[in-house]
C-alpha cells in the first residue's frame, strides 16, 4: 500500500505540473529548492517521494567537458605576441584564469632566406645541400613554391659561417596527409656537422625536434632531444594541421633554445646548446620502416641574427655617417614588391623620420648584374620608389622629404661571380640630405 501511495502521489504531481517541468526541477532539487509556488507544491511531497521520483526519472550526471584553449589576438602595438587565455573550468567558483603569450621575436639581420621562387620546378634548390634527394614543387590550393624532401634525406641551407650566439630560425611545413599512404617522420634541429655529405649526422651530438604520425589522433608525436629523445609534447593538436601549413620558429640564445609551433612555445631548454651545435641547421625526412610514401614539404625559410639590433645600427649609421646601406630589404624576384619580412627594417626609417621632422633622405636602389642593364636601372628605381611609397603610406611622411634614384648594377660592392656577391650587390642605400 505504501508503494501504491507513493506512486499515486507522484502521478498527482505529474498531472498538475508538466513532466518536463518536474524533470527540470527535480534535477536541481538536491542542490537548492526554489521558493516559487510550483516548488512549494513539489516540496510538500518531496521528502516522501524523492526516492520514487528518483527511481522514475534518475539520469546519469553529465561529465564536465574540458574547455578548449582560446587564442586571442595580441594588442596591435605588440610585436609577434599572441595571447592564449585558458578559461577556468567554472568561472563562478573563483578559480583564476591562466594567461600565457608567445614571446618569440624574429631576428632582424637576415642571414638566409629562401622561398624557392628563384628555383625551377622539379629542380633541387640552389641554396641547399643534401645527402639524398628533393625537388621544388607546388601544392594545389597552397601559395608559393615548396621544397619536397624525400624519404631518408637530410638537407641544410648553405651558410657562410656558424650561426651566431643569438639568432632565430623560421620555416613553414605543409603536413600532407592522404588515405592509405604513410606520412613522413620529420626531424629538424642543430648539429656540429658542417658537411652532411661527408659526416653521419646521426652519430654526432645534436639538438632535434621530431614530428610524426600527424594524421592520427592516437599516434601524434612531437619529441625533442639531444642525440637521444629526452621528452615529448604530445598534447599539441597536431592532427588539426593535417593538409595545412604549420609554422615553426626557433629562438637560439647562447646555450638556450626555444621552439614554437604556430607561435605556441612548446620547448624551452636553458642549458641545451654548445657552440658546436650552431655549426649547422638541418631538416630531415627520417629513415623509417616501412618507408614514408609522402614527402616533407618546407618553404619560407628565414634565418636571422639577433646579436645586434641591425635596425638601430642603420639609423645610427645614417645620422652619424650620413649614409646607411642594407641588404635586408628584400623584394620579389624581378619585382618592386617589398617582402613582408623586410617591413621591420623599413619601419626604422619611418620611425626616425616621424621623430625628426627635419630629416630628409635619398633612397637609392641597386641590383646585381643579372639581366639587361637598362632593365636593372628601371628595376632599381622602382624599388627605391616602393620604399618611399611605403614610408609615405604608413608614416604619413611628406613626399618632398624623400628623393629616390636607381643605379642598377653599375656600382657593385662585390664581385657578381657568386651568389653571395650578387646578394651583397642587391641593396638599398639611404643618404641623409
What would you call the shape? elongated
Extended strand count = 22
Oligomer: single chain
* CATH homologous superfamily placement of the largest domain: Exo-inulinase, domain 1
Helices, by number, come to 7
The CATH topology label of the largest domain is Jelly Rolls
CATH class of the largest domain: Mainly Beta
Helix/strand/pairing class, anyone? alpha+beta
Low-confidence stretches: 17-23, 25-93, 97-101
Average pLDDT across residues? 81
Over all CA atoms, what is the radius of gyration? 31 Å
Q: List the secondary-structure elements in sequence, H or E.
A: HHHEEEEEEEEEEEEEEEEEEHEHEHEHE
Q: Could you characterize the architecture of this molecule?
A:
This protein has 4 domains: 2-57, no CATH class; 70-101, no CATH class; 109-305, Jelly Rolls (Sandwich), CATH 2.60.120.560; 310-432, 2-Layer Sandwich (60s Ribosomal Protein L30, Chain: A). It has 7 helices and 22 strands. It has helices at residues 2-16, 19-27, 37-57, 310-321, 343-355, 373-395, 419-425; strands spanning 70-72, 83-86, 98-101, 109-114, 128-130, 134-139, 142-149, 153-157, 166-174, 186-191, 207-212, 221-226, 228-232, 245-253, 256-261, 264-269, 280-285, 296-305, 323-326, 361-366, 402-406, 427-432. 23% of the residues lie in helices and 30% in strands. With 433 residues, it is α+β, with helices and mostly antiparallel strands. The strands form 4 sheets. Strands 4, 6, 7, 9, 14, 15, 16 and 18 form an 8-stranded antiparallel sheet that branches. The longest helix is centred in the C-terminal third of the chain and has 23 residues, at 373-395.
Amino acid at each position: 500500500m505504501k508503494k501504491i501511495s507513493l506512486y499515486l502521489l507522484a502521478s498527482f504531481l505529474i498531472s498538475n505540473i508538466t513532466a518536463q517541468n518536474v524533470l527540470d526541477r527535480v534535477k536541481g532539487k538536491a542542490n537548492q529548492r526554489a521558493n516559487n509556488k510550483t516548488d512549494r507544491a513539489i516540496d510538500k511531497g518531496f521528502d516522501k517521494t524523492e526516492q520514487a521520483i528518483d527511481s522514475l526519472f534518475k539520469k546519469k550526471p553529465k561529465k564536465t567537458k574540458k574547455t578548449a584553449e582560446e587564442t586571442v589576438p595580441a594588442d596591435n602595438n605588440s610585436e609577434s605576441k599572441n595571447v592564449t587565455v585558458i578559461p577556468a573550468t567554472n568561472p563562478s567558483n573563483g578559480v583564476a584564469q591562466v594567461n600565457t603569450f608567445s614571446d618569440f621575436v624574429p631576428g632582424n639581420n637576415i642571414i638566409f632566406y629562401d622561398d624557392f621562387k628563384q628555383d625551377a620546378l622539379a629542380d633541387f634548390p640552389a641554396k641547399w645541400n643534401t645527402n639524398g634527394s628533393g625537388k621544388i614543387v607546388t601544392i594545389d590550393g597552397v601559395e608559393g613554391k615548396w621544397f619536397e624532401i624525400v624519404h631518408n634525406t637530410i638537407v641544410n641551407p648553405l651558410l657562410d659561417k656558424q650561426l651566431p650566439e643569438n639568432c632565430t630560425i623560421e620555416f613553414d611545413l605543409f603536413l600532407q596527409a592522404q588515405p592509405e599512404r604513410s606520412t613522413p617522420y620529420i626531424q629538424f634541429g642543430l648539429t656540429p656537422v658542417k658537411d652532411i655529405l661527408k659526416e653521419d649526422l646521426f652519430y654526432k651530438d645534436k639538438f632535434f625536434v621530431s614530428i610524426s604520425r600527424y594524421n592520427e589522433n592516437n599516434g601524434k608525436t612531437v619529441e625533442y632531444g639531444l642525440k637521444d629523445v629526452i621528452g615529448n609534447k604530445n598534447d599539441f593538436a597536431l592532427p588539426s594541421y593535417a593538409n595545412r601549413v604549420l609554422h615553426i620558429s626557433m629562438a637560439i640564445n647562447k646555450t638556450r633554445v626555444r621552439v614554437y609551433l604556430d607561435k605556441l612555445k612548446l620547448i624551452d631548454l636553458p642549458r641545451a646548446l654548445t657552440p658546436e651545435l650552431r655549426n649547422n641547421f638541418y631538416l630531415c625526412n627520417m629513415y623509417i620502416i616501412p618507408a614514408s610514401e609522402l614527402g616533407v614539404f618546407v618553404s619560407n625559410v628565414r634565418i636571422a641574427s639577433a646579436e645586434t639590433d641591425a635596425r638601430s645600427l642603420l639609423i645610427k649609421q645614417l645620422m652619424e655617417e650620413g649614409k646607411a646601406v642594407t641588404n635586408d630589404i628584400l623584394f620579389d624576384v624581378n619585382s618592386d614588391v617589398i617582402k613582408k619580412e623586410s617591413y621591420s627594417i623599413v619601419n626604422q626609417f619611418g620611425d626616425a623620420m616621424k621623430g625628426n621632422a627635419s630629416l630628409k633622405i635619398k633612397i637609392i636602389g641597386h641590383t646585381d648584374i643579372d639581366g639587361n642593364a637598362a632593365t636593372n636601372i628601371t628595376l632599381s628605381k622602382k624599388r627605391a620608389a616602393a620604399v618611399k611609397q611605403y614610408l609615405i603610406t604608413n608614416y604619413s611622411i611628406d613626399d618632398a622629404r624623400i628623393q629616390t634614384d636607381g643605379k642598377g648594377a653599375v656600382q657593385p660592392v662585390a664581385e657578381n661571380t657568386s651568389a653571395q656577391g650578387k646578394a651583397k650587390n642587391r641593396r638599398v642605400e639611404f643618404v641623409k640630405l
